[in-house]
Structure formats: structure tokens, C-alpha cells
What does this fold into?
Amino acid sequence: MCTNYRPGARDLLRAHLALDESAWPQAWPDEVWPTYLGPILRQDGAVLRAELGRFGLVPHWAKDAAFGRRTYNARSETLAEKPSFRDAWRRGQRCLVPALWFCEPNWESGQSVRWRIFDEGGEPLTLAGLWARWRAPEGDWLTSYTLVTVNADLHPLMRRFHRPGEEKRSVVVLRDGERAAWLTGDLGQAQALLKTPAGLDAAPL
It folds into this structure.
């Protein structure tokens, strides 16, 4: 599970992801937790759009936005079946979530220590996500998103996190040649990208 990450500064993401400055939202928190607003990239026809979304996906049928407090991660194995995520998955509502690093708890000392996981070369990461739109009873629209996770029990780095005996999970990191396929490919192409990441390093915060 990933409950917290740092999106990165606006100018760094603009340079790394080759989007004009005017395309980015004006501001977001230094760190994002569930229910916070964070930047996402999604395909809108032929245009790649950057916008703010709420971390924790709120499906269109939810009664209130609080639903998103428990849907900030989506298991890759059940995307097509779980009601919270299956509509976004089947409709191809996939997004990129920029992150300088993401956090996981390390229990090797016998207690939870917050670690950050980052690209070993120092580049910003783009994480695989799903997005949705929900309309509040008052009529306002909310964009929200979730991070897709995969099993990481055998991953040399990601298996070091979370409590002993718990299943190990990892977010999906998309590299340069994979981002377009995630955003615009068919379900088979997208499914093929759901794998544990390479090229990561970690350190305690």
C-alpha cells in the first residue's frame, strides 16, 4: 500500500514531462496523503492534460466524497471486478501520477520507520493510476484518483516494507516508453504494464 508520496515541484515536473508551464495546475501540497489534492496527467482525446485530483478514488455512484478515504490504492488483480474501480478500468480512465518519491513503513528494526523510495538515478517517477469523476449533491464535480499496486513478495527492495507476515505490495512505476501505452493503449496493453518496478532505491526519512 502507498498512503503518502511527494509529487515534486512544478518546474521539475514540467521539465521532466515536457508539458508547457501553462498546462500545469498552479499549486499542490509538498506531500500528498489520502483526501489531499495532487497533480495527475490524463489523456483527453489527443491532448495530455494536467489537473488536480483528490487522492482516493470516488466512483460515480458513491454517496459522498468520504468514500475515497479507503480507495487510494487499487489491487491490480481485482481491477476488473471490484466495484470501486471496475468502471474506471473498463473505460480506460488511466492516469499518470508524478512523484519524486513515495513512502512505505520499514519494520526491520522492530518498529515502523518511514522510508522513502525513489528512482536510483534521481529522476521523477510516474506512477500508474486510475481516475474518476463524481458529482456532489450540490452539483459540483470532483476528479479523484487511485494508485494501482501489484504483489511484491519477491521484489528485492519492496519486500522490505510493511509488517512481518503481511503481503508486500508496490506501486507501478511507468518509464518513458510505457507512459503512452498506459494512457492510450487497450486493456491488454495496460495489463501488461502492471509489474513490479526496477531501478529504485530507498532510504529512511
Notes: The chain has one domain: 5-204. Residues 28 and 38 are 6 Å apart (CA to CA). The mean pLDDT is 94.
